[in-house]
Amino acid sequence: MFLRLLVCFASVIHASPISGYAFLNEEVTNSTRACGLVQALPNVFHAAVNSEHWNMCSRCAMARYGAKTITVQITNQCIDCGAGDIDLPMLAFQELAGGVDAPISIEWMVIDCPVEDQSILVCIDRNNANLLQPAHARNGVKIMRVNGKNAPFIGTSFHFALPEDLSLNNKVHLEMVSWEGETVQGVVQLKQGVCTSTGLQFQRAVVAESRSLTDETTTAEHPPTTSQQDAPSEPSVAKISAPVAVLLVSCAIIGFVGALVYMFKSISRHRSDSKCDKEIPLECPVTAAAILHVERFMPM
């Protein structure tokens, strides 16, 4: 048991919350949208992400508004959304925001998909035997290899292309790499138009950093009002690390001393033309003392 706990803690992956706005969009209804998922998860809401996070197709996320959170699976793309924004269908938006009108300011982050003990499925497109799609992966599939050859990712939808010179007539050695860097592999028999259970699943967990979305309670009888949610946040102040601060102070001191030395050298060169040359003790005591002090350390 102790060893299993060690493995669990060693495999934890940290993810950072993303800030943005949630919009209401009834078109985000099922898996047949831009991601083209054949087997979407049945127990979560659907969501569409902005172009910046388009590579998150099939992955799961937790969205938070105030003290309320929901789990969604990324199944669509929101072309008009800004960085960090997502689209939600009516049921998901109402579950998250209650009676507050869209858009709402939220935080969301990638989490484990709630697949429980299911294994990853690999689905072969019924119209194109060269298109593969993994489904029900805990952390999302980033790389696929078939018989040791890379299966190129198709960016227009969540599909991988079967490597050239390979067919599905025989069993294949399948290798999948998650977005967290974990690799699973095994031998499976794939069939066109069928989602095949691989018996494989990623084990590494995705959790929040110190500023976790689950720090607050996951239910709320009274969701925050619009005025509470939209209140402007305090402007962030850039922090300077200690080594950088020391370097800046040192440069300032060196520059100041250099300027003094240059000034005193100039005074020294031209003091023969000044009345202070002969009368320094009486009329220019401060200047004379300064020049003499500098000349002790830096002869002019």
Automatic annotation (TrEMBL):
Record flagged with keyword Membrane: yes
Residues making up the signal peptide according to the UniProt record: 1-15
Region (Disordered): 212-235
Name this polypeptide is given: Expansin-like EG45 domain-containing protein
Regions that span the bilayer: 242-264
InterPro entries linked: Expansin_CellWall, RlpA-like_sf
Keywords, sorted A to Z: Membrane, Signal, Transmembrane, Transmembrane helix
Source organism (scientific name): Aphanomyces euteiches
Origin: domain of life: Eukaryota
Keyword Membrane: yes
